[in-house]
Design goal:
- 44% of the residues lie in helices and 14% in strands.
- The chain is α/β, with parallel strands linked by helices.
- It has a 7-stranded mixed sheet, sandwiched between helices.
- A hairpin with a 2-residue loop joins strand 5 and strand 6.
- The model has no long low-confidence stretch (mean pLDDT 96).
Length: 195
């Protein structure tokens, strides 16, 4: 199994798709390699591309705020994206770009072994679980290949729709409540089971 550091190096030097030509920096995942939760977003934005770190722009500040409300530090979680380089003009990543990065996400998952993977937003939901209609499935759990997932809206969505602030806040609190239950030996029955 590959270490988080090796995955990071591989992402930084990656040239598997056209995004390597337009990026300033590739953006590997970052955080605690023993985290109970791994957050997976869509792709880096401008701030992330500048700094080479995930979720450091407006959406990252929002995520940090909600983590703080749940009593969790960013240092205790692992944060990554489906796609590791910024698509031009922050467009939705193309299928071939998602495919090029699929292996990195699988390696991160194997290295971190989180209790829950928190899927942030529709693009991540589609890429990771093949789902759509995030508003219909947010707040639900899914199990795929033995891994538990929690589905919620992307923090950036709260910038454009203030009604989602409460939704995301409640979802994050619910997810950490599930993690506490798992850590105390509880068993979570997933809302959605993937065969």
């Amino acid at each position: 199994m590959m270490s988080v550091e090796q995955i990071r190096k591989n992402v930084i030097s990656c040239t598997k798709c056209e995004l390597c030509k337009t990026r300033k920096n590739a953006v590997p995942g970052k955080g605690n390699s023993n985290a109970d939760v791994m957050f997976v977003g869509e792709a880096p934005g401008r701030s992330e591309d500048e700094r080479g770190e995930p979720f450091v722009g407006a959406a990252g500040k929002i995520l940090s705020k909600f983590l703080g409300r749940a009593g969790i530090s960013r240092d205790n979680v692992y944060i990554t994206n489906v796609v590791k380089c910024r698509p031009p003009d922050n467009r939705v990543p193309k299928t071939e770009e998602r495919e090029a990065c699929r292996e990195y996400l699988a390696e991160e998952l194997a290295a971190i072994k989180p209790k829950i993977v928190c899927v942030l937003g529709n693009t991540a939901f589609g890429s990771v679980l093949g789902g759509s209609e995030i508003t219909k499935y947010r707040g639900k759990t899914a199990r795929k290949d033995g891994q538990l997932y929690f589905i919620t809206v992307h923090p950036a969505a709260t910038i454009y729709n203030s009604g989602l602030v409460e939704v995301l806040d409640g979802d994050i609190a619910k997810m950490f409540s599930l993690i506490r239950e798992l850590k105390s030996g509880g068993n979570i029955k997933a809302d959605i089971e993937y065969s």
